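Bench notes, bay 3.
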Amino acid sequence: MNSIRSWMTETVVTIDEEASVGQAAQLMKAGQVGAIIVVRNDKVVGIFTERDLLALIVAEHRHAIDGKVKDAITSRITSVPPDAGASSVYDLMRKNNIHYLAVVEHEMLKGMIAMKDLFDFRERALEGEIYDLKKQMRETEELVSASGDERVKILMSANEKLKTLSLKDELTGLYNYRYFKSRLDEEMDRARRHRQDLSLIFCDIDHFKQCNDIHGHQHGDMILKIMAAILGEGSSAMGVIAQLRKSDVVARYGGEEFVILLPQTRKCDALIVAERIRNAVENHPFPGRETQPSGRITISVGVAALFEDAPNAEELIRAADRAMYAAKTSGRNKVCLCEPVAAAASLQPRS
């Protein structure tokens, strides 16, 4: 799933609900933003947008500038989790004429998503659909015009392509989420039967949205391809984990997220692999890296283990994802082991 995490703005401006509209307007001007998050005791209660401000100006509410911002919000807050699908969020915002949504997880503010952020996503999705449709039409024309033997060859070739597409991510060439999930279930069953170790590494590229905003999505795609080459299973000279066994799985989880499934691997050994990956990414000469906050392309990495951190597949993914968030919130460009849920819940939102 292509989640809004890849498209949302993580650094947002907030204001207390008791502040004045004038203060809100000054914050929007200073931050050059079209909306700010309104909070009460650090909890999100609404979004004050440029449309709210314009409505007050048009209505000629002379004293509104001194009024409280909570009274100027035209609608109550609607929020979505960071793992929500970009397509479904786009449809929600379009249907309800919403320009901004708060991104909230476990009652903590993670960022904000704007309709304009999703325009690029929708445009690329439509371009992909049109490309696929044209490709299908060309292949159909070739099949209809081919002779008997040629038709058989075309069908066999198409069948092989379908098999590959069902397993691999088209952009990066790594295994896709569907294949990763099926292998995770298989390895989970095997680990339970034989009481074997099973570890999961969850990687997320730091400040990836900023990279897209500055250089464009084509550049972002190139970064993803290079990242896949670094993680590659021995097919590339850059592969830092070329010694992976056949049972190990490297996959693109979605967006700028990657996962590495390590059967029969202890958590401490998975930590060593994760740190080697983090170091390789940090030191790789990615194009455009100088525009990143640290001057480098980096990743935040989480590590979790079956039995120790989670009893099943879904919980193992959540545990590794939670550890990755811990790496994000504690400074990025680091590896974190999974901690108990109570400890993770105390982490502050990403900035």
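Next record in the batch:
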Amino acid sequence: MPLAGLNATATYVNEDHDNTHKESRPSVKVVAAIEIGTTYSGYAFSFAHDPNNVIINTNWLYGGSSTEIATKTPTIVLLDNKGDFHSFGFDAEKYYLSLTNHQGWRLFRRFKMALHKNCSLDATIDDLEGNPYPAIELFTTTLRFLNGHLLKALHTKSSTVLETEIQYIITVPAVWTDEARHFMKESAFRAGINKERLELVVDSEAAATWWTGVNIKDNPDINLQTSGSKWLVVKIGGGTANVLAYEVLPKGKVKVIQKASGGAWGFTNVEQQLLENLDQELGVGNLDKLRREHIGDYYELLQEIEDKTRSRYIFSQDACVVRLPYSLSQEVKKHRIQTAKIKTWFDSELSSFIDHIKTVLNTNLSLRELTNIVLVDRFAESMYVQNMLSDAFTELKVIIPQDPKLAVLKGAVLYGHNSGTDISNQSDSI
């Protein structure tokens, strides 16, 4: 059962943490968090006088029929045929599909995961057609757009807040190296965000911050304020999955007892598997030909595959039907694939992550008293994911907080308000 209500921002302690930077930083009136996700991005903020009232943008103009993701927008950048920034997110998606001539236009999607391979400042990322572009420019453009959108939303709430009075928090995956984190900070600086007002936080630690601020009205048997209680926070998103654990201390303080760790076990890998299966069925090379000759149709096919794999009803039928563009196949309009096969791809991703969780639990003796798993992020509401975790950890109860997809963003805001006594040295060192 989803949990509702906000109680109080938790305070994190870290014995090795130097708290001097909080005391020395200038006055902060607003904390703003930005999340560049593998598939979707967004922002949130709250004011210092009312930190728990976290404001999420709910006015993204989505092009599809789903309102489920209106609080975030696709991580998509569109450059015009002159190489200049044109649009981001749903707007970029919609405009790109409306073009009758795509020549010279460049669309980038799913580029966050590229930093797992190469995060040097001279790294490049391919656009949809396979042409390289400087990665640092792409991330800078993304942060500049999201920050600009954020500032407009903020000024509708208060016209007196100056940009120099905003503390920025940017979320990063636990699996990122120090080099990747430096890359993100450099992108933020180039986007105009003052380095004195910027902190990075690991996404699962941000989610834990939000979770420990939740007042569990629907389940009074669970008490977050019980000193000595221990919780496992599991985050499963589009590109990565990770886990951390914390313990409740006296006076409502919280201490991380297992740093965030994980891997690239996100479900975008399932989409790639389906795409490769389709390529084999249609004849290897046909999809590449579609991309070269009908890039708009190719992108619509990618959308179709994404919609199918993230549908909560994907396993409710024996087969999954993917609609094919006319330019790809004039004879075969649909591709049918047995859901049992798709399930093996999902199982592979989740099983690898479950094995990682088991390793964490077995090597950290202090985690043997855990009784609950808190599941957050994009796939937290998936019954398939919930059931696999419940079956793998029969002694633990799986709990889904309210708005699990927004736990990282909201938690990052709360983290920013408590920065300096917060969550763990993994975040404090970046």
